[in-house]
Amino acid sequence: MTETIKTDVLIIGAGPVGLFAVFELGLLDIRAHVVDILDKIGGQCAELYPEKPIYDIPGFPVVTGQGLVDNLLKQIEPFSPVFHLSRMIEKVERIGDPLFRVTTDAGDIFEAKAVVIAAGGGSFQPKKPPIDGIAAYEGKSVSYAVRQMETLRDRSVLIVGGGDSALDWTLNLHAVARRVTLLHRRDVFRAAPHSVEQMRALVAAGKIDLCFGQVVGLEGEDGMLTAATVREDSGRVYSIPVDHMLPFFGLTMKLGPVSDWGLDLHNGELVLVSTETFETSQPGIFAIGDINWYPGKLKLILSGFHEGALMAQKVHRYIYPDKRLTFQYTTSSSSLQRKLGVL
Ligand code: FAD
C-alpha cells in the first residue's frame, strides 16, 4: 500500500510562483512538498521560454526563464522542499479542520494542513495546426516550444504564426539558424508592435524571409522535414525548403482537475480568491499565480510573488494556531537569517 506523505503544505505546481511560495512559507517555519505534471521544475518559464529574456522581475534588469527558475531554486534551498514531478494532482479532499488528503494520478497520497494551488493555466497544451501527417514529425523536426536554441543552429527554420511567440522566436533565432522564414496567414500581426517593427527591419535587410499563407502539407522522411507546402489566400501553392518547423498557434489552458475541487470560480476558468489572504472559497485551500482571479489581477510573475507572501501569513495561522506571527525583515532579523543559513 502507498505510504501517505505528511507535510504542512502541499503546493500544486512548480512554476515560479509555487517555487517562491516555498520561500515565503519556509521563513515562517512551514514545510512544503511540491507536485507538478511536468518532468521539470519551472512551469511556463522552463517549459515555454527557458532561453527568452524577462525584463520585469524586480531587481533583475534581465533574466532568462531558466535563469529565474535556477535562482529561485537556489533561494529556496535552505527550506529543502521535496519535489514530486511527472504526476498530476487529481483529487483534493477535506478530511479535517483543516486537513486535506491529496492524491495524484501516480497513486501518491499526501496529507497536508493547507493546500496551495499554484497551477498556472492548469495543464497547458499547444494548439496544433490541422496538417495531415504532422504527428510523424513532432518531437523531431516540428516542435511547439524551443527548449535549446542551439539545437536549431544552422538549420532552416520555418516559424508559423503572427503572435508574440512567433515574432519573439523569429527575432531570437535569426542569429542562430541558417535561415528563418516567418509564415503568417496575412500581413497583419497580433504581436507587440515593437517586435513587428524589428521583424520588418530584418526582412528589409534580407536577413529573414516573410511569407504569407497556410501550411497545407509536409514533406520529409523518418520524421525529418525537407519542405512545407504553403497555400496563399489567392489559391497559389508553393513549397518552402525547411529542416524544422515551429508552429505558434497559442496554448489551450485547461483548468483540468482543479475545477472538480468545489472551489468558486471566475468565468468557470480561474479560482476566486480573497486579496487579503489568497484563500479560496474553501478554508485552507489557497490559490496564487496565474490560476487565480480577483479584481485587477495581472498575470505577472511579480504579482504571484506578492500573493505568495500574503498567503503564507494566513497559512501560518492554520499550522501554528497558538503562535503569534511577528513581522520581520530578512535584512535585520537574526531569526530569519538563521533559517536561511546565513548566520
Ligand atoms: P506556471 O508557470 O504556469 O506553472 C504552473 C505549474 O503547475 C505548471 O508547471 C503545471 O504543469 C503545473 N500544474 C498545473 N495543474 C497541475 C496539477 N493538477 N497537478 C500538478 N501540477 C499541475 N510574466 C512576467 O511577469 N514577465 C514576462 O516577461 C513574461 N513573459 C512571458 C512570455 C511567455 C512566452 C509566456 C508564455 C509567459 C510569460 N509570462 C511573463 C507569464 C509568466 O510565465 C506566468 O505569469 C508565470 O509562469 C505564472 O507562474 P505560475 O507559477 O503561476 O504558473
Helix/strand layout:
Elements: E1 5-12, H1 16-27, E2 32-35, H2 43-47, E3 53-54, E4 63-64, H3 65-76, E5 82-84, E6 89-96, E7 99-104, E8 109-117, E9 123-126, E10 156-160, H4 164-173, E11 179-184, H5 193-204, E12 209-212, E13 214-221, E14 224-231, E15 237-241, E16 244-247, E17 251-254, E18 265-266, E19 270-272, E20 285-287, E21 292-293, H6 301-319, H7 334-339
Parallel strand pairs: 1-2, 1-8, 2-5, 8-20, 10-11, 10-16, 11-12, 19-21
Antiparallel strand pairs: 3-4, 6-7, 7-8, 9-17, 13-14, 14-15, 18-19
The structure holds flavin-adenine dinucleotide (FAD).
Flavin-adenine dinucleotide (FAD) is lined by residues 12-18, 35-38, 43-45, 48-49, 54, 56, 88-89, 118-123, 165, 256-257, 289-290, 299-302, 304.
The CATH class assignment of the largest domain is Alpha Beta
What would CATH call the architecture of the largest domain? Answer: 3-Layer(bba) Sandwich
Average the pLDDT over all residues and give the rounded result.
94
Enumerate how many helices there are, as a single number.
7
From the alpha-carbon coordinates, what is the Rg to the nearest angstrom? 23 Å
Overall strand count: 21
Kindly estimate the percentage of residues that lie in beta strands according to DSSP: 25-35%
Query: In the CATH hierarchy, what is the superfamily of the largest domain?
Result: FAD/NAD(P)-binding domain
Which ligands, by name, code or SMILES, are bound?
Answer: flavin-adenine dinucleotide
Uncertain runs with pLDDT below 50, 5 residues or more?
none
The largest sheet is:
7 strands, mixed
